[in-house]
Specification:
Helix content is 17%, strand content 28%. The protein has helices at 11-24, 58-62, 74-90, 95-99, 196-201, 231-236, 264-273, 376-381; strands spanning 70-72, 103-105, 122-128, 133-139, 143-147, 151-157, 160-165, 169-172, 178-181, 188-194, 207-208, 261-262, 285-289, 303-309, 318-320, 324-330, 333-337, 340-344, 349-352, 358-362, 368-374, 387-391, 394-397.
């Protein structure tokens, strides 16, 4: 069979093409002189645990970047939250004017300073002092809060006040009015996760702060409660049952979960109840946070999950076309990513980019609990989700990914 691969340009032809490019630059065009990058070879052919994908040289390669594995140690980054909180507390402006800026974003070292941890996920850490309020707003990206402090303050979503505690997951789907506050005596900390980079790439970012209704305290538009506290749990707190009378639409978003508040205590209880099960060889005891209307992911673009690794448990290797961000809720251990080991402990955050082999090990005598945020639903919708597992010396396609 003949080799149909295109032949590379000769040195002379490439030089002439590049000269033409220099002449035509003012026309905002580029005469193609190289293939796309970075992954020219099928990612699934190389079964080693070394990093997959290679950046090309030249015009195309210079315009493309690849996310890298990275671990953000809580011990290193949390002092900056304290400093932000102190500056906000001492600032000569009302606390609310500072509240929506009391955060820092995590940046992936492979993405050239972009405000994102992977190709489609943005993460930030926010801190709110006692008494802080953030005005009601809604926006096109889907977003969530993963509560890190014992007192998690509250988020009001479409009139439902979600009083939060550590380990809670609170959703603010696209097109839902939401505001935040801290009515406790100590600062609250949470992780914001958004599909912002995807919406930015598609050029559909928008934010609205002009909520209809009465203006609240401090000249702020804050939501009036239109649902009882714990409304999400009241409607969807019993697995396998959903109310037949409740509307599926809360806000103007499409195919997003109408359940806004997933409680950390419930998640831990569910994980511990399944501790005696065999679990998944690559994930341990894993649970998905789901849209109770159809059992699928809570957002069309992002999936959230929780997994329990029993003390000393070592998972098998797995890699996916999706990227995953991990938050260590409890315990300690390490994750090997593309041949490098990343030791983690409580509150640490790490990212596993697409295509890279990874496995987890729980190193403490007790169990470890990890929360996950992944762009798998997006990949599934465009027909690009794939996964592989290592079983002994063999690499096999994951039954859930091919």
């Amino acid at each position: 069979m003949a080799n149909d691969a295109p032949k590379p340009l000769s040195t002379d032809a490439r030089a002439r093409m590049e000269a033409l490019n220099a002449q035509a630059r003012h026309l905002s065009i580029w005469l193609r002189t190289q293939a796309n990058a970075p992954a020219q070879q099928p990612w699934f052919r190389d079964t080693s645990v070394s990093p997959a994908g290679r950046l090309a040289d030249g015009r195309v390669g210079a315009g493309q970047m690849k996310a890298l594995p990275h671990l953000w140690k809580w011990a290193d980054i949390s002092p900056y939250l304290d400093q932000i909180a102190r500056i906000a507390k001492e600032a000569e402006i009302p606390p609310v004017e500072f509240a929506d800026r009391q955060q820092f974003l995590l940046t992936n070292p492979g993405l050239g300073g972009r405000l994102q941890v992977s190709a489609s996920i943005r993460c930030a850490l926010s801190i709110y002092n006692p008494g802080d309020l953030a005005r009601a707003h809604l926006h096109s990206p889907n977003a969530s809060r993963t509560i890190m402090s014992q007192n998690g303050g509250y988020t009001t979503v479409e009139g439902e006040r979600c009083a939060a505690s550590r380990g809670d997951l609170i959703l603010t789907p696209n097109g839902t009015w939401h505001d935040h506050g801290n009515d406790g005596a100590t600062p609250v900390i949470w992780i914001d996760t958004l599909d912002w980079p995807l919406m930015e790439f598609l050029d559909i970012i928008w934010l609205d702060e002009d909520m209809p209704g009465d203006i609240g305290a401090d000249n702020l538009r804050m939501q009036k409660r239109s649902a009882p506290d714990g409304y999400s749990r009241m409607l969807y707190g019993k697995g396998g049952l959903k109310p037949a009378f409740a509307t599926r639409a809360r806000g103007i978003g499409q195919d997003v979960s109408p359940c806004f508040h997933y409680r950390g205590a419930d998640t831990r209880e569910a994980l511990c109840a399944l501790r005696g099960e065999a679990g998944d060889p690559c994930e341990g005891i894993a649970l998905d946070f789901v849209n109770p209307e159809h059992g699928g992911p809570v957002f069309p673009t992002l999936a959230y999950g929780a997994q329990l690794l029993r003390g000393g448990e070592e998972t098998a290797f797995k890699r996916e076309t999706s990227s995953t961000v991990y938050v260590v809720i409890s315990g300690r251990g390490e994750t090997e990513i593309a041949g490098k080991t990343y030791p983690w402990e409580e509150n640490d955050i790490f990212v596993v980019p697409n295509f890279l082999w990874r496995r987890h090990v729980a190193r403490g005598p007790g169990d470890a609990i990890l929360y996950t945020m992944s762009d798998r639903p997006l990949l599934e919708k465009i027909g690009q989700y794939r996964a592989q597992e290592k079983r002994g010396s063999k690499t096999v396609n994951s039954p859930k990914g091919f």
